[in-house]
Every structure is written in C-alpha cells, then in structure tokens.
Automatic annotation (TrEMBL):
<feature type="compositionally biased region" description="Polar residues">
    <location>
        <begin position="30"/>
        <end position="42"/>
    </location>
</feature>
<feature type="signal peptide">
    <location>
        <begin position="1"/>
        <end position="20"/>
    </location>
</feature>
<keyword id="KW-0732">Signal</keyword>
<protein>
    <recommendedName>
        <fullName>Lipoprotein</fullName>
    </recommendedName>
</protein>
<feature type="region of interest" description="Disordered">
    <location>
        <begin position="27"/>
        <end position="58"/>
    </location>
</feature>
C-alpha cells in the first residue's frame, strides 16, 4: 500500500510521509517475491491505494469545553508554515493528529490551544515568541479528504461533526536548540494527561 503524501499546509507545505518515517521497513515496494495472480500479472501491477500512518499509541482524552480524543500519527520539525516561517533561532514542531469526539455522537470544537507539546526545555525556553503550547494548525480533514483530496481539500475550521474522525497538522514554535527528549502531547495545564509523540523526523 502506498503511503499518502500528507500536507501540513494545503497551500504551502507538502510533507511526504515515507514508509520508514511511519515505522515501516520500506519493503512494500519490493516485487521480487510478490505472488503472481494470473498469467503475466503481478500484484504490483494493481493500483496502490493511499494510506494514512497508524496511530503511534494510546489516545489522549481532552477534557476542556468539549471532550474529545487525540492520537499522534506523525511528528516532525519544519521551517515551512502556511502563513510565515518561524523566526530566526526557532523552528516548528508539527504533529499529525487524529481527532474524534468523546462521546462520538456529539459535535465539538477542538482548538489547537487546548494542547501543548511538553519536553525538558519547554518552560525554560519560553519568551514572547515561544509559548509552550500549540500555536496553530491546518483545517480539519476527514479521512477521505486526507487520502484522496490532495490540495483541493479545504477542510473545515469550526465545529466538527458528530460521529466523524478528523485529521489535522498542528504545530508549536520551539527553540532550534530545544531538548526534545521524551516529548509528549498534553492537555494544557495537565502534566499528567499526556501521550508520547514518538520519533520526530526532520522535514526534507
């Protein structure tokens, strides 16, 4: 299965999620030992459907004005953001999130500011530009929009429909020298309500 090309900004930043970056050993493209399904036909001849990375771990349940669950699918540092690039001496730590209302049958609003990425130097690095919480994010997209919509998918920015899973890139401005050891996604103001982010790649 082909990994989908994910977009941090539908207009400005294209982020290809490689097989290796998602924890796959990259052998999905190998055809040497592929089974033959008919005379002269190999399974590699069949169309490859785009896929999303699997969630990296347990869901973070956010208990704010609205209640919902968040899972991390990917994480990277990047200098490319939709509006303007990070200032000198800073970069952006971006995470791809899977978001779902909890309970699922309620519409919700899930602002980026409900969440923060915690890491050892987060508090000590704070200044007028670095707030130690998520600074923004792309619009919310459904799975079909993520997989098949490409840059034409605009998504939504307000109320999220009930019984629907959404995806978005969200980012936090950090120091270029930040110690990201053991970085975790947390509900703002709750050091105990966190989930690990996992491996953080560098945007190519």
């Amino acid at each position: 299965m082909r990994r989908i090309t994910l977009h941090l900004s539908l207009l400005a930043l294209a982020c290809a999620v490689s097989l290796a970056a998602c924890g796959n050993d990259g052998d999905a493209g190998s055809t040497a030992n592929s089974p033959v399904t008919g005379p002269g036909k190999n399974t590699s001849d069949e169309p490859e459907l785009p896929t999303l990375p699997a969630p990296r771990g347990p869901a973070l349940r956010v208990d704010a004005k609205y209640t919902y669950k968040v899972q991390v699918l990917d994480a990277m540092t990047t200098l490319s953001l939709p509006d303007k690039p990070p200032l000198a001496g800073t970069t952006a730590l971006a995470v791809l999130l899977r978001i779902e209302a909890d309970p699922a049958n309620r519409p919700i609003v899930a602002p980026a500011q409900d969440l923060q990425i915690n890491f050892p130097s987060c508090i000590s690095d704070q200044n007028q530009y670095l707030a130690c919480q998520l600074d923004g994010g792309t619009n919310f997209l459904t799975e079909d929009q993520m997989r098949f919509g490409a840059e034409a998918a605009k998504g939504i920015s307000g109320t999220l429909a009930a019984n629907t899973v959404y995806y978005r890139w969200a980012w936090q401005l950090i120091s270029e020298k930040a110690d990201l050891t053991g970085a975790s996604l947390c509900q703002v103001g709750s050091k105990d309500n966190c989930v690990p982010i996992g491996a953080i790649r560098q945007d190519s």
